[in-house]
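Translate structure to sequence.
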């Protein structure tokens, strides 16, 4: 068959119905004539959340657009909302948009007034309302390449500040205490990306981004090369984070929490120099610390033997100063634990007062050794769960471009998309079965609902799946989003 005959026959084949095994006396027939359908009916909820937060609009203010407006069909807010909402729906790859650009429901979520793309300037683009993957790729590469093809650039400092401002805005305004969790995580690289370095702990080439969260709310996402200490840049980040929190909550106490990778003189000294800024940091074991905890560990070992092998813990408190790196003696909490796996000593250094805050009876005993370790320090494990959502659900580790700056932008976009889902969970799903669900679970259970889209002159009618099992929960989210919009209005 020659080439000229291939396309018509292929088209005919696509129109033919597909026959499956009969269902009793009924034939089972399928075709692709179902009209405009979407598998992402939850995009409407994300659209309302995006509008309520002014997320895409605020982020667009961090970009500069040098395109000729006469030929622009996709505005900056539309491009950014397309990218963010698609990432929230699980489409982290730019190549996905070659098909997603035809999704009428995603077009509605991105504020496209022509959701079917019937009025596109170029005839070849008609039917594709949204931007293609090359257009979105130029958006992400614009900071590194300024030429006739890359006319959209972004200001990294503005995006950094935008994330911080929006995150702090989500914190309770009258909170008396804010706990800022710091952590670094390895993002493995599978190419020749700029700044790639081999990291012995992860056993591969990777980046080492620095994150800061307050609860589930992201405040900081800084992409770094891995040829550095985990705490590198933490003081500069904390200076901006604390200043932003102070502007919203001038009287709040701030506690900086992190593992032993952040137990550095610079961080502790900086916190000690600030008003009402405290730290609770893991402290790596060494011979002098083990000598201090030795008697308590021996007592725990004896008790473990007497209890028949039940895990045993004892806590001690002592003043400690390193031989060279620390400028002063500091309060250290030691945990002497013995389990079936053997001894498990751990240490925490802090400047929190052991007898609590003066004049606050409720804080008495809160920072005693056992309570401080078990209830305050160990609670930082929740940030590990948040980072897992960043990597597993949001795929924030898709560092696919060559330039470090472009990969930083992708990290920010994934963090903004996570914030969109986190706010949806916090503001509309509290008190429901999904109140503490991961964003990946929310995506699968709530947002992935089949929908038929009918567009007329007067309305866009979205007909959601009648068999959707969480219909009442979806309606509840809609009501809460509507109530929020009414309050904002």
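Result:
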């Amino acid at each position: 068959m020659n080439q000229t005959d291939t396309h018509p026959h292929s088209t005919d084949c696509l129109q033919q119905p597909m026959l499956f095994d009969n269902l009793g006396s009924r034939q089972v027939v399928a075709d692709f004539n179902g009209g405009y359908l979407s598998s992402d009916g939850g995009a409407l909820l994300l659209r309302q959340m995006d509008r309520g937060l002014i997320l895409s609009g605020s982020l667009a203010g961090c970009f500069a657009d040098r395109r000729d407006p006469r030929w622009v069909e996709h505005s900056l807010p539309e491009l950014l909302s397309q990218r963010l909402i698609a990432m929230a729906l699980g489409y982290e790859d730019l190549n996905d948009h070659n098909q997603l650009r035809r999704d009428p429901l995603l077009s509605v979520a991105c504020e496209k007034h022509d959701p079917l793309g019937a009025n596109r300037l170029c005839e070849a683009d008609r039917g594709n309302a949204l931007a293609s993957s090359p257009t979105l790729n130029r958006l992400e590469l614009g900071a590194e390449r300024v030429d006739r093809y890359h006319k959209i650039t972004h200001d990294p400092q503005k995006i950094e500040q935008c994330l911080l401002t929006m995150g702090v805005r989500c914190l309770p305004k009258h909170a008396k205490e804010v706990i800022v969790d710091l952590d670094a995580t390895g993002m493995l690289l599978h190419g020749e990306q700029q700044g790639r370095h081999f990291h012995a702990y992860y056993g591969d080439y990777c980046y080492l981004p620095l994150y800061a969260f307050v609860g589930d709310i992201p405040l900081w996402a800084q992409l770094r090369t891995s040829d550095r200490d985990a705490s590198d840049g933490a003081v500069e980040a904390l200076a901006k984070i604390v200043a932003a929190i102070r502007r919203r909550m001038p009287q709040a106490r701030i506690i900086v929490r992190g593992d032993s990778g952040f137990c550095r003189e610079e961080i502790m000294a900086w916190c000690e120099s600030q008003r009402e800024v405290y730290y609770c940091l893991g402290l790596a074991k060494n011979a002098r610390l083990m000598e201090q905890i030795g008697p308590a560990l021996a007592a725990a070992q004896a008790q473990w033997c007497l209890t028949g092998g039940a895990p045993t813990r004892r806590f001690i408190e002592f003043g400690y100063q390193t031989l060279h790196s620390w400028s002063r003696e500091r309060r250290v909490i030691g945990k002497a634990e013995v389990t079936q796996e053997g001894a498990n000593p751990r240490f925490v250094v802090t400047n929190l007062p052991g007898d609590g805050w003066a004049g606050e009876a409720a804080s008495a005993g809160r920072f005693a050794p056992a309570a401080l370790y078990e209830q305050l320090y160990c609670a930082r494990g929740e940030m590990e769960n948040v980072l897992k959502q960043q990597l597993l659900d949001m795929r924030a580790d898709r560092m696919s471009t060559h330039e470090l700056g472009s990969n930083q932008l992708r990290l920010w976009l994934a963090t903004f998309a996570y914030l969109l889902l986190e706010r949806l969970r916090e503001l509309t799903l509290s008190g429901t079965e999904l109140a503490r669900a991961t964003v990946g679970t929310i995506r699968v259970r709530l947002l992935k609902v089949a929908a038929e889209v009918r567009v007329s002159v007067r309305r866009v009618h979205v007909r959601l799946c009648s068999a959707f099992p969480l219909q009442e929960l979806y309606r509840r989210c809609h009501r809460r989003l509507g109530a929020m919009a009414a309050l904002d209005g």
